[in-house]
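Section: Multi-chain targets

For targets with more than one molecule, the full set of components is provided together so that the structure can be written out for the assembly as a whole rather than chain by chain. Components appear in the order listed by the source. The example entry contains two components.
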Amino acid sequence: MTAASVPAELLADIARHGEETYPDECCGFLVGTATGEERHVTQIERAANQFDGQRRRRFVIRPEELRRVEEKLEGTCQSVLGFYHSHPDHPARPSAFDRDHAWPWYLYIVLNVAEGHAGPVDAFELEPETREFHAVPFRSAPPPRART
Amino acid sequence: MAQVSVKIPTPLRSFAGGASVIPVEGATVGEVLRRMTDAHAGLQRHLFTPEGKLRSFVTVYRNDEDVRYLERDATPVKDGDVVSIVPAIAGGSDAGPKDPRGLPIPRRDVTPGAHPRTLSNEEVLRYSRHLLLSEVGVEGQKKLRDAKVLIVGAGGLGSPTALYLTAVGIGEIGLVDFDRVELSNLKRQVLYTTADIDRPKVGAARERLHAMNPAIRVVTYPEPLTAANAMEVIRGYDVVIDGTDNFATRYLVNDACVLLGTPNVYGSIYRFEGQASVFDARVGPCYRCLYPQPPPPGLVPSCAEAGVLGVLPGIVGVIQATETIKILLGVGEPLVGRLLLFDALAMSFRELTVRKNPECDLCGPHATQKGLIDYQEFCGVPAPGSVPAVDPGVPDVSVTELAEELASSDPPFLLDVREPEEWAIAHLPGAHLIPRRALPDRLDEVTGARRVVVYCKSGARSGTATQLLLGLGFSGVRNLRGGIDAWAKQVDPSMPRY
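Its structure, encoded as tokens over all components, is:
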């Protein structure tokens, strides 16, 4: 993945979600289209953080939730591109725990929420061979228009 | 043998030749997955651990049923079934307790950091007994190698903790202690040898730890931990181990850890008893939830005054090391919300529940303390490393002045308020023993003395005894400044010190 685009209004929605769930972590789906090495996020879908424990520093989206969203998108040109989650009072950088549970290909957006206020956001992808994260340049822009 | 279809999740399709569905034969779900990864080796490490177990965040469905609720990998399949591999998506802001550094996020062209992702052959051999534990394994050992642990106090508790954490390969160990090694340390502070006497503890400790494991980094802080430096020292460590021997530093460590969001692995020892717990205010109580206020100065004697069984810090210190490793690996149940009590004489363990105090001024929802305070004032004690100031309210006498009075024709009544065991080690000639705790019931033994000099080991207990007597109407009572320890140093060097 070389780059991603995420409309400003969706980033604002993610920020709002993180502020609403603070001090717990929020999470959700990034939905859109993949063209070559680029990801274009066109909508987000909030998910419930179903971690059975300290949601201030962990989130879980259960597999049945992912199945539900994927089935809903079947037959459309869109798919699940990745996931977003927040780090309450912690930098918008993936942790070792994030790395240990991440999947390649997916776009991961991490939002910092400091004392209840949304802060910086950043995007990452897991390198499949080294299993290290690398930052994905992303721009806040309108999605590509279909050729007419 | 059934013919089934395996649905490949998007992240793994590049390892399956780009396919979203793969036809596979097998009799069970487990056999289907093995045959699939045999044919597409790139899928193996994304689906299975090095030990061959399905990764915890991989869920497998047979048609619409999660096989965890069926027969797991023994779940039978029949022709036409669809086996779906579905990721559970998880993450969080911490790796175990905390990952304050975050992860270095290299661009594709950035050279990786100091620690290679793999273990060297030497590391594999050194830690092989760890690697064989599924709860540790290669990935867990790397976590230990990447971890930074700060040990406050390189004494009785810090010694075994530092030794074992060095042995298991903690990447960086910080040691805070401003003291020098003394002969009286050697019976329980197993980091040191006779040759280390009078050396700074942290310097001697670093040599010993490096000899054990040259690969670890030992950072030394040969200074008192104070409110001025605690945040800077503690920041950046993943776990702090409290091996301190005084309440002021204990509260300081706790408060700094709460403010920084760092787990504080607590241990304490007293005579034959020990305590251990994990205070992590993000998920449970802090030390102040258990003990909002320190005891009055002098109420709880130190090891130097009360004595301690030599092996006791070894037991409690290794418990602290164990809890630290569990926190770093994210395994087991750390002692959060539990106070472990150990009685060496009864050889018994018991546990008390510790709840987060909703009124806690530091970690509660309505906390008012937002920074560090003056801990000496809070605990009513002198600063670490300083000479205790003489309480102007308590009349006292120096050891040299007492020596002159004892040599005169009208010596004072000499009252020793230590314990019988201390008396047996050494006592002043002509002294009368009444242990401090028994003094209120034996006042008649002091009645009639015109002038009384009270002493203990260092002047602390005798100071409170002097105040007691003066408060009860006795006159002419004075405290021996510096106690019998000062007498042994200045008046009679032949007297054993302890």
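Residues 7 and 19 of chain A are 19 Å apart (CA to CA).
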